[in-house]
């Protein structure tokens, strides 16, 4: 077993007094890191908000109807369902127009669905290059098939009143990052009550 060596002070070295207050660096470093973290969070928040507003501006949508004779018959949001009379959230915008009016692709994309359902009637869903999706419902006829590549302004079908509808119109929905969005601003429509 070895004995512990004790350090003896060197008599040639002048001893300094011990610092009784902690170094200023001890306190400034955490404060600096806190301020740096706060700055990073602020920059991240503003860039997120900017990208959200920028994504709306980045959407250059082609108007989905080939006519000037249309009106917003039902906006995005809560409303009383005209076919069932129940209060519910309307997940798109209804654009009333004459039956047979050509319905056009809002952006270049690929047809992900072209089918029929009890509520939408004949509908087409497009997937666009930036991940945005658009849905066109209550069509009288479909002109496209799943997997088909379409250009902005290309006819997808014609407006009708298939499914749960009270008259001829186009039901238009917009999805960004997998979530439904209000298409009113993106289409440049006047604000309407649901």
UniProtKB/TrEMBL annotation:
A Pfam family found in this protein is Peptidase_M23
What SUPFAM superfamilies does the record point to?
Duplicated hybrid motif (SSF51261)
UniProt KW keywords: Membrane, Transmembrane, Transmembrane helix
Lineage top rank: taxon: Bacteria
InterPro entries documented for this protein: Cell_wall_metabolism_enzyme, Dup_hybrid_motif, M23ase_b-sheet_dom
| M23ase beta-sheet core domain mapped to chain residues | 89-183
For this UniProt entry, the molecular function terms from Gene Ontology, in alphabetical order, are: metalloendopeptidase activity
- Segments spanning the bilayer are 31-50
* Listed name of the protein: M23ase beta-sheet core domain-containing protein
Provenance organism = Faecalibacterium gallinarum
């Amino acid at each position: 077993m070895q004995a512990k060596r004790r350090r003896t002070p060197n008599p040639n070295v002048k001893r300094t007094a011990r610092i009784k207050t902690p170094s200023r660096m001890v306190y400034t470093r955490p404060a600096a890191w806190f301020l740096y973290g706060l700055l990073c969070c602020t920059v991240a928040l503003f860039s997120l908000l900017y990208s959200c507003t920028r994504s709306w501006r980045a959407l250059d949508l082609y108007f989905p109807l080939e006519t000037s004779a249309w009106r917003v018959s039902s906006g995005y949001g809560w409303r009383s369902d005209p076919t069932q009379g129940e209060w519910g959230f309307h997940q798109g915008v209804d654009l009333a127009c004459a039956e047979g009016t050509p319905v056009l692709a809002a952006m270049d994309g690929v047809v992900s669905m072209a089918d029929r359902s009890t509520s939408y009637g004949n509908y087409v869903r497009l997937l666009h290059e930036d991940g945005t999706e658009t849905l066109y419902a209550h069509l009288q006829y479909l002109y496209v098939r799943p997997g088909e590549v379409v250009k902005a302004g290309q006819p997808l079908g014609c407006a009708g009143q298939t499914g749960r509808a009270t008259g001829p119109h186009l039901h238009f929905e917009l999805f960004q990052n997998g979530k439904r969005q209000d298409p009113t601003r993106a289409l440049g429509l006047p604000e309407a009550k649901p």
